[in-house]
């Protein structure tokens, strides 16, 4: 049986580095208020942050949706950017298409998606036919990682 | 846990209380800091934008020190205060800051 306990959406603006990271921070606070275990909150928050920053930098902004179920915590990051042409390449540590300006402020190491992969139990990346990316991440409740 | 008063640096907010810490990370690549920083470390970086506070919060770091003379964005200071992350600013270079911190790191003394 599956039932949604909580559903919340956060909006992420493209290239807004002044507010970037807020959605992940709100997700983190919400999970702490719900009383989830620290290590679990940390994993979800890191995944949320990296997905949020990818929408800010690469995805033309988008939405980050949090859903809590009995079995897992799910994050879905959906944007209307260019999509990710080569997923295998994008998942490689060190691969980044970020330009110099982005790298200068500390992004573009090509470690965001690998960081997400380390934190979650399920990671699915889809390109939308009309352009844009949907990144689905799940952290199981009850299982250790 | 080790303790240090970062009197060589300016607190960006608050009065510059003593910091309880365990080790240090020196890194300007944000997603590398996310991958490698450990809870209660002091983070030394050159960035001034608010994302450093987001990362410090995610990794439960003890404090952030902006070295090399950079001045944090007002939003960075605001966010640090809101989240209770000690934020310091200094014109000193990373190596000189690390020397002071290392002298207060009792774990290093034990390693020999
Ligand atoms: N939402 C997205 N839309 C379009 N392209 C993306 C998106 N997310 C990731 N990518 C592509 O995948 C690459 C790798 O992403 P990843 O998050 O691993 O690294 P990065 O964002 O470039 O750098 P870092 O995350 O270390 O700051 C990006 O450089 C970009 O080309
Ligand atoms: Mg990234």
Give an account of the 3D structure:
The complex is a heterodimer of chains A (145) and B (112). Chain A has a five-stranded antiparallel sheet, with helices on one face. In chain A, 34% of the residues lie in helices and 27% in strands. Chain A has helices at 22-33, 38-57, 87-90, 100-104, 112-119; strands at residues 4-12, 62-69, 72-79, 122-127, 133-140. The model of chain A has no long low-confidence stretch (mean pLDDT 95). Chain A contains five helices and five strands. The two termini of chain A are 23 Å apart. Chain A has one domain (4-140): Histidine kinase-like ATPase, C-terminal domain (Heat Shock Protein 90), CATH 3.30.565.10. With 145 residues, chain A is an alpha+beta fold. Chain B has 112 residues and is an alpha/beta fold. Chain B has one domain (20-111): Udp-n-acetylmuramoylalanyl-d-glutamate--2,6- Diaminopimelate Ligase, Chain: A, domain 1, CATH 3.40.1390. Chain B is built from five helices and seven strands, in the order E-E-E-E-H-E-H-E-H-E-H-H. In chain B, the strands form two sheets. Chain B has a five-stranded mixed sheet, with helices on both faces. The longest helix of chain B has 10 residues, at 74-83. Chain A binds chain B through residues 17-22, 24-25, 28, 42, 45-46, 49-50, 53, 105-107, 109-112, 114-115, 118, and chain B through 28-32, 34-35, 45, 47, 49-55, 57-60, 73, 75, 83. The complex binds adenosine-5'-triphosphate and magnesium ion (MG). Adenosine-5'-triphosphate binds at residues 50, 54-55, 57-59, 79, 81-84, 90, 95-98, 107-113, 133 of chain A. Residues 50, 53-54, 112 of chain A line the site of magnesium ion.
Please give a quick description of this structure:
The complex is a heterodimer of chains A (145) and B (112). Chain A has 145 residues and is an alpha+beta fold. Helix content of chain A is 34%, strand content 27%.
């Amino acid at each position: 049986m599956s039932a949604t306990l909580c559903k919340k959406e956060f909006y992420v603006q493209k290239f807004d580095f002044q507010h970037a990271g807020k959605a992940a921070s709100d997700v983190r606070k919400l999970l702490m208020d719900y009383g989830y275990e620290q290590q679990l909150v940390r994993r979800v928050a890191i995944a949320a942050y990296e997905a949020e920053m990818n929408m800010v930098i690469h995805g033309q902004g988008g939405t980050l949706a949090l859903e809590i179920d009995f079995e897992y915590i799910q994050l879905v990051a959906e944007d209307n950017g260019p999509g990710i042409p080569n997923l295998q390449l994008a998942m490689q540590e060190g691969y980044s298409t970020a330009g110099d300006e982005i790298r200068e402020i500390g992004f573009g190491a090509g470690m965001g998606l690998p960081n997400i992969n380390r934190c979650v139990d399920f990671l699915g990346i889809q390109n939308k036919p009309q352009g844009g990316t949907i990144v689905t991440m799940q952290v199981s409740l009850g299982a250790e990682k | 846990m080790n303790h240090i008063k970062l009197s060589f640096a300016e607190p960006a907010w608050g009065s510059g209380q003593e910091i309880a810490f365990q080790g240090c990370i020196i890194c300007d690549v944000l997603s590398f800091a996310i991958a490698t920083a450990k809870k209660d470390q002091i983070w030394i970086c050159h960035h001034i934008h608010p994302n450093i506070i987001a990362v410090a919060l995610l990794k439960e770091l003890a404090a952030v020190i902006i070295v090399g003379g950079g001045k944090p964005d007002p939003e960075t200071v605001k966010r640090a205060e809101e989240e209770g992350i000690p934020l310091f600013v200094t014109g000193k270079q990373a190596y000189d800051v690390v020397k002071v911190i290392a002298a207060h790191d009792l774990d290093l003394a034990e390693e020999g």
